[in-house]
Design brief:
With 141 residues, the protein is an alpha+beta fold. It is built from three helices and nine strands. It folds into two domains: 2-35, no CATH class; 50-139, no CATH class. The radius of gyration is 20 Å and the shape is elongated.
Length: 141
């Protein structure tokens, strides 16, 4: 089995199939090559403004065209059914294999962004009336 894996890897490197994931396993040592999407490059000129959604314990970037989220230490980006993580709001990005924050796993990204816009609108209205808002906390304004 190790000889087969070594041969397959040598072949892949020789013909230049970078960006692929190689899985070797049952049945009968069959080799399956699954394409892995390249890391995205996002163009965001400044740190996005965030709003905190307490029910999901996640910050949502509401002023960019991307599905970007922040858990307080790691940035997350969702695109074409794939989750990415990065140390900064503009990457570099790596595919999330496992370990997505619970808040992000509970609700579809598009719904979370819509919820963030509702929180933002509610919070904006409360600021003008001198009331202390509950729920969402703008971050980066």
């Amino acid at each position: 089995m190790n000889r087969v894996l070594g041969s397959v890897l040598t072949l892949l490197f020789t013909i230049g199939l970078w960006g692929c994931e190689v899985l070797v396993g049952p049945p009968h040592g069959r080799v399956v090559i699954t394409p892995v999407p390249p890391p995205p490059v996002l163009v965001i000129p400044a740190r996005p403004r965030l709003v905190f959604i307490p029910d999901y314990r996640i910050y949502v970037a509401y002023d960019v065209d991307y599905n970007i989220f922040y858990d307080g230490s790691v940035w997350f980006y969702f695109s074409d059914g794939v989750w990415y993580r990065g140390g900064e709001y503009n990457g570099p990005w790596m595919v999330v294999e496992k370990g997505l924050p619970p808040g992000l796993a509970k609700i579809p990204p598009g719904q979370l962004k819509k919820l963030a816009m509702k929180y933002k609108k509610k919070e904006s209205g409360k600021h003008g009336k001198g009331k202390k808002g509950r729920g969402a906390r703008p971050f980066g304004d």
